[in-house]
TrEMBL record, chain A:
<feature type="transmembrane region" description="Helical">
    <location>
        <begin position="272"/>
        <end position="293"/>
    </location>
</feature>
<dbReference type="Pfam" id="PF00528">
    <property type="entry name" value="BPD_transp_1"/>
</dbReference>
<dbReference type="GO" id="GO:0005886">
    <property type="term" value="C:plasma membrane"/>
</dbReference>
<feature type="transmembrane region" description="Helical">
    <location>
        <begin position="89"/>
        <end position="112"/>
    </location>
</feature>
<protein>
    <submittedName>
        <fullName>Spermidine/putrescine transport system permease protein</fullName>
    </submittedName>
</protein>
<feature type="transmembrane region" description="Helical">
    <location>
        <begin position="163"/>
        <end position="190"/>
    </location>
</feature>
<keyword id="KW-0812">Transmembrane</keyword>
<dbReference type="InterPro" id="IPR000515">
    <property type="entry name" value="MetI-like"/>
</dbReference>
<comment type="similarity">
    <text>Belongs to the binding-protein-dependent transport system permease family. CysTW subfamily.</text>
</comment>
UniProtKB/TrEMBL annotation, chain B:
<dbReference type="Pfam" id="PF00528">
    <property type="entry name" value="BPD_transp_1"/>
</dbReference>
<feature type="transmembrane region" description="Helical">
    <location>
        <begin position="101"/>
        <end position="128"/>
    </location>
</feature>
<feature type="transmembrane region" description="Helical">
    <location>
        <begin position="134"/>
        <end position="153"/>
    </location>
</feature>
<feature type="transmembrane region" description="Helical">
    <location>
        <begin position="182"/>
        <end position="201"/>
    </location>
</feature>
<feature type="transmembrane region" description="Helical">
    <location>
        <begin position="238"/>
        <end position="257"/>
    </location>
</feature>
<dbReference type="GO" id="GO:0005886">
    <property type="term" value="C:plasma membrane"/>
</dbReference>
<comment type="similarity">
    <text>Belongs to the binding-protein-dependent transport system permease family. CysTW subfamily.</text>
</comment>
<feature type="transmembrane region" description="Helical">
    <location>
        <begin position="207"/>
        <end position="226"/>
    </location>
</feature>
<dbReference type="InterPro" id="IPR051789">
    <property type="entry name" value="Bact_Polyamine_Transport"/>
</dbReference>
Length: 303, 262
């Protein structure tokens, strides 16, 4: 027998589930199902003009990752795709390190300002979040291209010769990634520094620590959660980025995102595209898992 | 606490911050300045003029793209904010079994890289035979706007005093009446900032839109992308500046709402 209280609780739960259902339906049909289909497609044979051949399962897409089929059907080791994964990982790691290097001092500077100035500066950090990524990347094309502003500026002081050659290279992609994701690093680090009890630092000074020691022994460890959060926020979107390598890399400095797009465009190989997309998603999940474990461990240590 | 004084000046911190802000803003300022260039060149300054703005304002293709963007962003914002508000209300309260999984699905669009999301949704539309059009763009936008709208509303709900709703129930208010008289007015700032976030995210999205847009359903970011690929031009400078100004107006508005809340 249910007591009236239990009945009321059940009615309450049903009402809450009713409120959640519409969004769950939309996300299940238009995101979870497509992702599941993508996983399935990665094990199918490609159709002749795009699409797939249903019912013909194979691991060909994943084999294509590492090997190429020769004319006589023998497998030849091929590092093309692996090389692009490696470049993407390398660029994402470099971007993350660069963001940490510039982001941490910037966040520390913000945290040490008076409240009024701090609010203004924080506002300035958040503006790029709201502005279109294409527009910001385009601004860099204006600066970096041959005969562009940096090039002609260098020419004026007698250093450039009108052929800067940065645009459409790994360096340009790197600048673009760094530029795009820096605010994602500054804000979480600032958030953890803002909560920091500065009396601890003062105590360290009183006990004869110099600034470097205070920074290393107190501020850096306490800013670590913010740095980890920032690392995730920078690394994941940098790894899967499509726009920046496309526009600043000029189709030469490919990253995983461009490779995925190619399979759905000119290459007409949906299974390979799905396999590549799934590999990218797995890398992202791994990064999240790693971060989650690190965070759990660091809270355990504090308790 | 007073953090001034020579002891608090960490060497290199101030220059790093200056480098950061210069890095962030110099490209944007250069772009804005060059949009007022009178010449044909996108990078060579030849004098002040508003010529390129009138070119943009009279370009039928740009206006059509802007109209498409506005239609999609408005509808996606309305629908995703409604979905997110309902979900946030449902998620509020004592934990139930399976709530973690629901939370995970709600946050999923934030985890999936946009290129992965794009190709998955594209294949889904192809397999169910839905022709690519503004409708497919709208569906995709609702999917990735929902978590952005959800987060501020959920945060606002968590800060709400539960005793207010208990008091309403004690006074025999129906849940419907309690929602409109108590929860909704208190949630409104959260709903507004969620909606603004969704609107901007939708207006700015390129990658997912690019994949699920049919012929003739060009949005503003798609237009900009294809123009950049054809080569830089002062016209792109002008339209980029307009988009920048719209975004900055939005930040200022959200900042204002945030200030009033306090």
């Amino acid at each position: 027998m249910s007591t009236p209280r239990q009945l009321a609780a059940r009615r309450q739960l049903l009402r809450r589930l009713g409120l959640i259902t519409p969004s769950m339906l939309v996300l299940a049909v238009f995101l979870v199902a497509p992702l599941a289909i993508m996983l399935l497609v990665s094990f199918l044979q490609p159709g002749d003009y795009g699409g797939v051949k249903w019912g013909q399962y194979s691991a060909e897409a994943y084999i294509n990752f590492l090997y190429e089929r020769d004319l006589d059907d023998s497998l030849v080791f091929n590092t093309d795709y692996l090389g692009i994964f490696q470049r993407s990982l390398g660029l994402a790691v470099m971007t993350t390190l660069g963001c940490l290097l510039i982001g941490f001092p910037t966040a520390l500077y913000l945290a040490l300002q008076s409240e009024k100035k701090r609010n203004l500066l924080l506002f300035l950090v958040t503006v790029p979040f709201w502005t279109n990524l294409l527009v910001r990347v385009y601004a860099w094309i204006l600066l970096l291209r041959n005969g562009g502003l940096i090039d002609s500026g260098l020419g004026l002081i007698g250093l450039g010769d009108g052929a800067l050659g940065i645009l459409y290279s790994d360096a340009a992609v790197m600048i673009g990634l760094l530029y795009t994701f820096l605010p994602f690093m500054v804000l979480p680090i600032y958030t953890s520094l803002e909560k920091l009890d500065w009396r601890l630092v003062e105590a360290a000074f009183d006990l004869g620590a110099n600034r470097f020691q205070a920074l290393k022994r107190i501020i850096l460890p306490l800013a670590l959660p913010g740095m980890l959060a920032g690392t995730t926020l920078v690394f994941i979107p940098a790894l899967g980025n499509y726009i920046i390598p496309e526009l600043l890399g000029g189709g030469k400095a490919l990253m995983i995102g461009n490779l995925v797009q190619l399979q759905f465009g000119s290459a007409h190989n949906w299974p390979l595209g799905s396999a590549l997309a799934f590999a990218l998603f797995s890398l992202v999940l791994l990064a999240l898992l790693f971060n989650g474990l690190r965070q759990r461990r660091s809270t355990e240590v504090r308790i | 606490m007073n953090l001034q004084g020579p002891l608090w000046r960490f060497t290199g911190v101030r220059p790093a911050a200056w480098v950061f802000f210069a890095f962030l803003y110099v490209p944007i300022l250069v772009l804005v300045a060059l949009s007022f260039n009178s010449g044909q060149s996108a990078t060579l300054w030849q004098g002040f003029s508003l010529k390129w703005y009138s070119v943009v304002a009279n370009d039928a293709e740009i206006l059509r793209a802007a109209k498409n963007s506005l239609i999609v962003a408005t509808l996606a914002t309305l629908i995703s904010t409604c979905l997110a508000t309902l979900a946030a209300l449902g998620m509020h309260g004592p934990r139930f079994r399976g709530q973690g999984a629901i939370q995970g699905v709600l946050g999923l669009p934030l985890l999936v890289p946009d290129i992965v999301c794009a190709v998955a949704i594209l294949m889904f539309f192809a397999f169910i035979g839905l022709k690519l059009s503004l409708l497919t763009i709208l569906i995709a936008h609702i999917v990735f706007c929902t978590p952005f709208a959800y987060l501020p509303i959920r945060a606002r709900l968590q800060g709400m005093d539960p005793r207010l709703l208990e008091a309403a129930a004690d006074l025999y208010a129906s849940p419907w009446r309690a929602f409109w008289r108590i929860s909704f007015p208190l949630l409104l700032p959260g709903i507004l900032s969620g909606a603004m976030l969704a609107f901007i995210i939708s207006m700015d999205d390129f990658v997912i839109t690019y994949f699920v847009a049919g012929a003739g359903s060009t949005t503003l970011p798609i237009y900009i992308f294809s123009s950049i690929r054809m080569g830089i031009s002062p016209k792109i400078n002008a339209i980029s500046t307009i988009m920048l100004l719209i975004s900055i107006a939005f930040v200022a508005l959200s900042y204002y709402i945030g200030q009033r809340k306090r």
